[in-house]
Structures are given as C-alpha cells and as structure tokens.
Amino acid sequence: MDPSANHHPGKGLHIGHPWPLGASLTARGVNFSVVAPLATRIELLLFSHGDAPEADRIVELDQRHRSGDHWHVEVEGLGLGSCYGYRVFGPLQPGGHGFNPSKVLLDPCARAIAGWSSYGRGSAVGAAPNTSQCLKGVVTERDRFDFHHAPRPRHSWQKSVIYELHVGGFTQGPGCPVAEEHQGRLLGLIPTLPYLRELGITTIELLPVMAFDPHDAPAGRHNYWGYSPLSWMAPHPDYLVGDDPLSGRNQVRQLVTACHRAGIEVLLDVVYNHTTEGNQDGPTLSWRGFCDRLYYQQSARGDYQDVSGCGNTIAANRPLVRRLILESLRCWATELGIDGFRFDLGIALSRGDNLAPLDTPPLFEEMEADPDLSDLKLISEPWDCGGLYRLSDFPARRVATWNGRFRDDLRRFWKGDEKTCWTMAQRLSGSPDLFTNAPVHPGQCITFLTAHDGFTLADLVSFNGKHNLANGEDNRDGDNHNNSWNHGIEGPSSDQAITALRERQLRNLLTSLLLAPGVPMLLMGDEVRRSQGGNNNSWCQNNPLGWMHWQPDEGDLALRLFLRRLLKLRAHLAALFNPEQSIDETPQRRSSDRGNLWRQWHGVELDKPDWASWSHTLAWSLQDSRQGPMVWCGLNSYSKAMHFELPACPNGWLRVIDTALPPGDDLPSEPQPWLPTGAPLQSRSLMLLVAAPLLKGTEL
C-alpha cells in the first residue's frame, strides 16, 4: 500500500488525530474525533447549514481512521460554524438495541448545536431515517475564559450563600427588571445582579443550562426545568439571544464575567446520571448511537438499569464515559469560566457495573485529581432513585452534599411534631449525628429549607398537601411527604391570625437555617414569599407558577429586608454561627485548651434541655471561657407562650431577633439592649440575643 494513502484517504481529507475529542480547528480545516468502540464503520455528514434536510458531503471513515476506540478524520477547508453529524454502523446488541445507522447522531462533544427549528424527537425512534429532522453539531472555538480580567471570586465555603434559580424563570414575569429581548435568557441575569448582591448572595446555582430536549415530556407538556440532557457541552438554545449557535458560548462568558466582577460565583446544576434518550424504546440522538452498551448501565441481556427515574443510568465507572464527563466539566470551567457544579443524583455516578456502589468511584477520584478542576466548588445530591443514600460517607473528599435531613428536621420542629428537639439540636450544631460524631466542616454540607424540587417557603407554611393538577398527571407526581403545615386554612388566607403565624414561621425557618453551621442555600423568590399555588413539582410550568415574583407587596418587602439583615448578621458573626473549627459541646478544662468557645444547651431553665418526645422548646448559648455568654437563642414551637431563663451577660445583651415582633422590629437595623433576666417567647417564635460588644458600631 502506498504510505501516502494513510495521509490522503480522499480529496482534502487526512487521517486526523484522536485528540481532542469533538470537532476542533486545525491549520488546514477541522479535525473530528468520536468514541465508538464497537462500530465497524462511520460516516461523517457535512451540512451546508443547521436546517439543511440532506448532507452536502458524506465522508467515509474506515479502519484507517481508527485509533483504538477513537474514530477521526481531518477535513480541509472547513471552519467555524460548519455543521455536521454522524451515522454509525455496527452489530445489534443483546436485547435487540444498539446501532441504528438510519439515525444522524449529535456529537457528544459538540460545543454548539444547530437544527432546532427542524428537529423532531419522534423521528429519532424506529428505523426510518431522520436526516431532515436531526440536530447537528457546530464547529466552535475552544478559547479559554479570560480569568485575568474576570478572576474567580473564590469565596470561602464559610462565607458562601447559595441562591438556586432557574434562568428562564428568574428573568421574566410582571415587573421583571430585564429588558424584553433578554427575558428568559442568560444575559437577562446580568441586570439582576445588583438585586442579588444587595440581598447578600455570594453564589448563584443555575438549574440546567446544558442543552436539553424540551419535548422530553408527556403530550401537551414541555420540559421546563431541563433535567433531560441532550448535550453535556452546548448551552441550551432557548437561553440564548439570537439564532447564531456560535454566539452562545460568548453569551455564557458575558454572564460569567459580569458575575465575577460583581463578586458572585456561578455554579451549574449538571445532569450526568442520565440522558434524554430514555430506555431502549427511546430516541437514538447521540450517546446510544455511538455505543449503547458503553454509555448506559445494562444487564447481560440488554435490559436498561435505571436509578435515575428517567429510563437510563450513565455508566460513569467506565474510562471512556468518565473522560467525556471530565471533558464537559473542563469545557464549562476553563473555557466558559464556571466556578463549580452541583451533581443531580450525584451518588448514581458512584455505581459500578450492575449498579454496585463503589467506595472509591473512579470518576470522583479523577475529578479531584484534575488541576483544571481543583479550584471549583463541587456539590452533590447524596441520593438516587435506587435507594442509595450516602451523606457523611459520600465517596469523594472534596464534594459537599445536600443535607436533606436538615431540611426535614427543621420543618418538623417548627411544625410542632413530637420527637424533634433532639434532632433540631443536632442540626443547629452541625449534624454531628449524621457526620460520624464530628460536626460538619465548611465545604462538607449544604443546608437548605427549600429547593426547586418541592414547595417554596411560602407554600411550605400555606399548604398541607401538594396541588399539582396543572402538571397533567392527576396529582400523582411530586413528593407526598413535605412536612408542611397550612396553619389552619389550605392556601391563601385573609384570617389575620393565620397570616401573622405564617409570617413568624417564615422568619423562624430562615433564622434557624442561617444560624446553623454549613453552607446555606436559598431558593429563588423565597425572600419575597414566591408561591407556586401549592405545586411542589413545577418542572413543566413555564408560566407565573415557575417565574420569579417581581412585584412584591409590603409584606414581601418586609421579609426580604429581614433576610438581608439576617445574612449581614451571619456574615458579621461567621466565626460563631459557621466557624472554621467546630464548637465544643462541653467547657474547656483549661483556658489554654484549643479554642475558647463552647455550646451549652438549655430548656426554659438554664442548663436543663428537655429532650422528651413531647418537648417543643429549646435554647442554646455560646459561652466564652473568659468572657462569658456571647450568644443566646431560644426557640419555642409550642402552641403557647413560654418564659425562658437567661444566662447573665457581663457585657450586656442586645435583642437582635424576635420573630414575634412586627415586621421591621423583628430584626431592627440597630438592636436595642435587653435588660430583663428572662425572655418571654410567644408561641412559635424565636429570639436571638447577642453580647453587645460583638455588634458595636454595626448596622444591620
């Protein structure tokens, strides 16, 4: 064979290189590389534009274009904006599914996508060709983010406050401060940054912005949240301004640059545990067509194994799959400037073959060893739909976990459930019972009351049950165990006693969250009592149910002011409420012992906490071995007022918070001295006293 044939397999064609994956610019064109271990041959289809019904050119890749599991070719004369797809040929796999060369496949490493206006999800099912309705990859640049002019804020975990939001929902709705052309878009977040900074937010966590399939939903519904990934590299087109797929990456960079310059970090909620391709009966869009058995966990006979609840589970234990996920993380972190990731059902990524849990999952080991990812914030859900739940023993050293027990136990205590005082004390002291008898350290635990999945804070105190009929599933969807309480009437109420009690409970919950150790996360709109009408699963609600509340009334503004002052207080006293080192639960024997703070538990009487199942009162203080009490906090979730004894404070107490007082007085900008020797707490209220020197000269 002529050796030159290895370099010139066709006019303007070259063998190419296996790395980098995807489509990358070269001096003479574009290099294409994909993974397809079991394929026998591949066709690269080149299209004139994103909605072209047929390919202009088909490039055959045979065994000369193969290096191990990688297929590659370099095509001269192509450049930025070129549109392409693949057909992959190979044998059927066990179970009767696998290669389907009638389908045009999207490159899993495509950093932009075209063809949305002609795309048909249904055409990717069955044996008929889908060329006229397929999505195409688009050749893009791979420039690194300009960290010199927009460096990462790098907030310490101790001082971080996360705000979870939906890009489309936060940037639209009546009264939205975003220009109409940017509403529902990534760029629409930029004019909202002053709002977030004023509130005290350091970090925003965006629900999925990687391209997803909005048609992955029952008939008549659209997938609004985006937990249905179609690509792990490309931004979702509905969040971009204009129709140019090449502009999407720069729009992400514009947003991240603005956030960094405002001192706000950007985290992404990422879905690597499953894809939009569903089970073996789903569409063949990308991963499945390149190697069904590689990407998805399956039994020996080819049945899909599902711990995601969405039809498939990604086999993140396998080297080629891990490499693709790591490539995605690097794409968003180093090319687009993203500061961290929250892994949806992240514990599913720790499963090996046959879904066996791994104590040292290779994906997390490689992630933590990667220098490009070393300065990121990494967060995970510690559960999946297969029953695996690993909180304190999450198998990754640098990954923080969502503490679902924190959410549930705070809700149950303030609802007035029995057997809650002991668990409430554990949550307020860093959950040592959950973290092997050692309180949580900064960067280990995410504490929260609400998230996108479940009730909003306002609905939590207004509804006993979910009201999800608008989702079209006869109210079967959504969690049935919300630990919520309507306080007497289901839904909105004009009863002043009920509304006043709900207002106290909102403040009780927020204060409990922000006085506890951990990294707090707030849900979009909770600060202004955003309601979803009792819908606790608004995944398909692209309407006011799923949008931000931008027309707050007086009561909404009062709660926002309360939260802003509370966040300022937490930041000012971070060493007490969220210390770098855990606070001892017993006094030091010598003043030279490590630290000088310890926590003391009380009930209505000093040093006599009541852990009985029927108890609904709890108090705690932080004691300095030399200066005496620094902080005292009383919680009364009982149906009647209770009188608490107070420890004597040599420096004098300031009453900082009393949720029983009217809005504005519940957390005043200038706390006033508290002279009584006791503290009367109204039913279902919280009071916080702070030693006067700690707030000297501080205005909240």
Q: Report the helical percentage.
A: 10-25%
Shape descriptor? elongated
Poorly predicted tracts of residues? 1-8
Separation of the first and last Cα atoms: 80 Å
Strand order of the largest sheet: 13-14-15-16-17-18-19-20
Rounded average pLDDT? 95
Largest sheet: 8 strands, parallel, barrel
**Whole-number radius of gyration?**
28 Å
Work out the strand percent.
15-25%
Number of strands: 28
Query: Which structural class do the helices and strands define?
Result: alpha/beta
Q: Tally the helices: what do you get? A: 12
Task: Explain what this protein looks like in three dimensions.
With 700 residues, the protein is an alpha/beta fold. It is built from twelve helices and 28 strands. The chain has helices at residues 167-170, 193-199, 248-261, 287-295, 319-335, 362-369, 404-415, 421-428, 457-460, 496-514, 554-572, 574-577, and strands spanning 13-14, 22-25, 29-35, 41-47, 57-61, 66-67, 70-76, 83-89, 92-93, 97-98, 113-114, 136-138, 162-165, 203-206, 265-270, 340-343, 377-380, 399-402, 445-448, 519-523, 597-602, 617-624, 628-636, 642-645, 653-658, 672-674, 678-681, 685-691. An eight-stranded parallel barrel has the order 13-14-15-16-17-18-19-20.
Question: What's the arrangement of secondary structure elements?
Answer:
Blueprint: E1 13-14, E2 22-25, E3 29-35, E4 41-47, E5 57-61, E6 66-67, E7 70-76, E8 83-89, E9 92-93, E10 97-98, E11 113-114, E12 136-138, E13 162-165, H1 167-170, H2 193-199, E14 203-206, H3 248-261, E15 265-270, H4 287-295, H5 319-335, E16 340-343, H6 362-369, E17 377-380, E18 399-402, H7 404-415, H8 421-428, E19 445-448, H9 457-460, H10 496-514, E20 519-523, H11 554-572, H12 574-577, E21 597-602, E22 617-624, E23 628-636, E24 642-645, E25 653-658, E26 672-674, E27 678-681, E28 685-691
